[in-house]
Write a structure and sequence with these properties.
Layout lengths: L1 H16 L10 E10 L2 E9 L4 H8 L4 E11 L7 E15 L4 E6 L2 E5 L2 H8 L1 E8 L10 E9 L6 H4 L9 E7 L8
Antiparallel strand pairs: 1-2, 2-7, 3-4, 3-8, 4-5, 5-6, 8-9
Keywords: Signal
Protein name: DUF4390 domain-containing protein
Pfam families: DUF4390
Length: 186
């Protein structure tokens, strides 16, 4: 009886130490900052994440992955729902090009090719000086806050892949931060 408990405990510890499918992948926000400039409000962010095995496997089989960053600036109101002052969204497309053996990151009409997945992921993990609001949208008299989200957009995957998604595609992050009077984040 005691030997069975020892063996079961040994396998439980061994299973916990094995990396892989049982662990959840996620995104960590390393840096999130805003700056009020002459041409509006600028956002800079940096994330830390790795693609899960399922997402990496799909990428190398020709399925492009889409990453979406959304930023919404809202003004607090005591008498009604908070007013949305500005909203910005940016989408990146990551694809593997088997003929050239390169990774391609596209943002709108701009494309950039990389020799390794790590180089391509560096571009996807952050953004600097992204204008999210015009100067006319923000005034110094109000109380504002920022809602920020970054995710791997699974809705743009092919339909058969959306059924029963594995945990390797579950990459998302949401943050809500208040602005200081100079529009830096608290």
């Amino acid at each position: 009886m005691f030997a069975r408990l020892v063996i079961a405990a040994f396998f439980a510890v061994l299973l916990a130490l094995v990396p892989g499918g049982a662990r959840a992948e996620g995104i960590e926000l390393a840096q999130l900052a805003t700056r009020k400039a002459d041409d509006g409000l600028e956002l800079s962010f940096t994330t830390r994440f790795e693609l899960g095995h399922a997402a990496d496997d799909a990428l190398h089989k020709g399925v492009p992955l889409y990453f979406v960053a959304e930023a919404t600036v809202l003004r607090n109101r005591w008498y009604w729902r908070d007013a949305r002052v500005a909203r910005a969204e940016r989408t990146w497309r990551l694809a593997w090009q088997p003929l050239t053996r390169q990774y391609r990151v596209s943002n709108g009409g701009l494309h950039q090719s990389f020799n390794s997945l790590e180089e391509a992921m560096t571009v996807l993990r952050g953004q600097s000086a992204w204008r999210i609001a015009e100067p006319k949208d923000i005034d110094d008299g109000g109380s504002y806050y920022l809602e920020f989200s970054y995710r791997l957009d699974v809705s743009q995957l092919p339909r058969p892949m959306q059924i029963g998604l594995q945990s390797g595609f579950a990459l998302s992050l949401e943050q809500r931060r208040n602005f200081a009077p100079d529009f830096s984040l608290r």
